Recover the amino acids of this structure.
């Protein structure tokens, strides 16, 4: 049996956002979102690790081209995220909160769309200050329809 391995790379970026749900009271917003419920612009520096998993192609010794993975992650981060205000500049976050969980899902969906072999995508790990971490592996998700971000289950 051919060996199976993971291959990953990391990229850091800065975003700004404001978390405030119209579904929650002011008190609940503060409790759920903490400092991120401050309407003054604030930013976060995140590190994202994108992990692929697959069969090691024994003729070339890799799961996939590491330089392809690196440049795809770099361009996803540089073109779609770094320096952006997620709530105002990224359509995806117009109707879903710009939490770490949803940001990991956004990165997953962007990478999945752009990878030559999307089935190799295994996990997206998003870390804030090396203290908080979200891991997303493609379970459930969202789709974009007419400018709205909807749960995949709402579109079946
Ligand atoms: Zn925040």
């Amino acid at each position: 049996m051919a060996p199976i391995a993971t291959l990953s790379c990391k990229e850091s970026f800065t975003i700004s956002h404001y978390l405030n749900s119209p579904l929650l009271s002011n008190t609940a917003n503060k409790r759920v979102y903490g400092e991120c419920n401050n309407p003054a612009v604030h930013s976060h520096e995140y590190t994202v690790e994108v992990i692929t998993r697959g069969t090691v192609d024994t003729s070339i010794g890799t799961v996939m081209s590491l330089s392809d993975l690196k440049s795809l992650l770099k361009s996803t981060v540089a073109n779609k995220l770094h320096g952006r205000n997620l709530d105002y500049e990224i359509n995806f976050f117009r109707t879903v909160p710009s939490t770490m969980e949803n940001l990991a899902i956004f990165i997953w969906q962007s990478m999945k769309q752009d990878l030559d072999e999307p089935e190799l995508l295994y996990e997206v790990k998003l870390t804030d200050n090396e203290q908080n971490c979200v891991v997303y592996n493609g379970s459930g998700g969202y789709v974009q329809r007419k400018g709205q971000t909807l749960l995949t289950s709402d579109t079946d």
User: Anything to note?
Assistant: The pocket of zinc ion is lined by residues 17, 36, 42, 44 (CB under 6 Å).
